[in-house]
Write a structure and sequence with these properties.
Strand content: 5-15%
Helix content: 40-55%
Structural class: alpha/beta
Number of strands: 18
Oligomer: single chain
Mean pLDDT: 82
Largest sheet: 5 strands, parallel
Strand order of the largest sheet: 2-1-3-6-7
Length: 443
């Protein structure tokens, strides 16, 4: 096992459940020699107690235990972590039954050290791939190209500083107005740093109540994002809206380099880089209700300011063509933006920043039909501005949001109005609480 793999293994634990004390001690010793932390249990009852107090990363489970036939409990156990079933009487039927019940693998006693090592490696590799797939699914929705487009002095300075910070491992705080491109800057830092080959995960701090947010971040029965994104980058959007109790836990994790899951005393090494973003200014973040002091001073050691679009009007033609390049062949027509249209775009103040410009360009592609050129009458600027900011409804339409953005803003509005009470919000929407949680987790 390579040095990097051994360092990773040291942060993972394996629970061995077998009533044969001699075999259990042998397996525990072999597992520890592989660099993992090993815990033993002789009955299913003991195993369940360990799962509740010190959740392992993998379970080796004897098929026959004094107090239960363990395979009867496989579906429930496999939801909490991967399970390898052990049996003294191997057969194809038993193997198929165990896998159908949720086992990740199946080993027949006696188990050689090499077979044990290979089985553990297969299961952890499969778990890692599942985590990466899950993170990529979160990432693909609304993904933006990690390129900081533009050549104005403000953008060149931003790009240069982002490249410099990409090589560091320290947390970074990105500040900018809504829609200014904070997520793109975070991805740029990730893609230009040493963690580029690993996962980029994102957590919307404003879209979950405190308990769910803590579990999603630190984990409970299952790993949280701090574990799932191990080796990569975790982007925390709207960090100022994270509940203060969660902020303090995050600050402690960043300070000590370790954290625990809910209900567990086992420390897990922090192996992820944290990048946070906020549309609030530093004075607001420092004030009561923003960031707690311990997290404020950690995050503000390295900051990046993303300028609003109105402060970089010279970049608008390049940005508009950048967004057009994604949709250039819509309706089988290669489109361009006319000079007069670009001049018109440069005169607008863009309250919705890059997000608004992207939406305007995409609508221009559609409204221009089969025409090869997007003309001024194909773009719509501020036609809903008369509605201004409907503050009584908590939804801004000044940046002409898409239907998906309106849905997300309405959900945020309801969660904020009802103190993140998902049961109440689900009732207002006429859906189950589970359905609401699924919608929020997929955004």
């Amino acid at each position: 096992m390579a040095a990097a793999e051994r360092a990773m293994a040291a942060t993972q634990s394996i629970l061995v459940v077998d009533d044969d004390a001699i075999l259990r001690r042998l397996l525990l010793r072999q597992i520890e020699q592989l660099g993992f932390r090993a815990v033993g249990a002789g009955t299913l009852t003991e195993a369940l107690a360990v799962l509740d107090t010190d959740p392992p990363d993998l379970v080796l489970l004897d098929q026959k235990l004094p107090d239960a036939t363990s395979t009867d409990h496989l579906p429930d156990l496999a939801e909490r972590c991967p399970v390898i079933v052990l049996t003294a009487h191997g057969s194809v039927d038993q193997a198929v039954g165990a896998v159908k019940a949720g086992a990740a693998d199946y080993l027949t006693k006696p188990i050689s050290p090499r077979m044990l090592e290979l089985a553990i490696a297969r299961v952890f590799e499969a778990a890692r791939l599942r985590n990466e797939v899950g993170l990529l699914r979160r990432e693909v929705k609304g993904q933006e190209t990690p390129e900081i487009v533009g050549h104005t002095a403000e953008v060149c300075k931003l790009r240069e500083r982002a490249r410099m910070l990409a090589e560091a491992e320290m947390p970074v705080l990105i500040h900018g107005e809504s829609g200014a491109g904070k997520r793109t800057v975070a991805r740029f830092i990730h893609e230009n740093g040493p963690r580029a080959e690993a996962s980029f995960a994102e957590l919307q701090c404003a879209r979950a109540d405190g308990s769910h947010l803590a579990d999603e971040l630190f984990g409970a029965a299952a790993p949280g994002l701090l574990e799932a994104a191990r080796g990569g980058t975790l982007f925390l959007s709207d960090i100022g809206r994270m509940p203060q109790v969660v902020q303090r836990r995050l600050a402690a994790a960043l300070e000590t380099g370790a954290f625990t899951r809910r209900g567990s005393a086992r420390e897990i090494g922090l192996q992820v880089r944290v990048i946070a973003a906020s549309s609030q200014g530093l004075p607001e973040l420092a004030a009561e209700g923003g960031l707690v002091p311990e997290l404020f001073y950690i995050l503000t050691a390295f900051t990046l300011e993303v300028p609003p679009l109105r402060a970089r009007r010279a970049d608008i033609p390049e940005l508009a063509n950048h967004f057009l390049s994604r949709r250039r062949f819509a309706l089988d027509v290669e489109k361009t933006i006319s000079r007069k249209t670009l001049e018109l775009l440069q005169k607008w103040d863009w309250p919705g920043n890059l997000r608004e410009l992207r939406n305007v360009v995409e609508r221009g592609v559609i409204l221009s039909g089969r025409s090869a050129t997007i003309q001024p009458d194909h773009v719509e600027l501020g036609q809903q501005a008369g509605l201004t900011e409907q503050r009584d409804k908590g939804i801004s339409v000044a940046d002409e949001p898409t239907l998906e953005q309106l849905r997300d803003r309405y959900l945020d509005f309801l969660l904020q109005r009802h103190d993140n009470n998902r049961r109440v919000v689900a009732g207002i929407l006429g859906i189950s609480e589970r359905s609401l949680y699924r919608i929020l987790s997929q955004r």
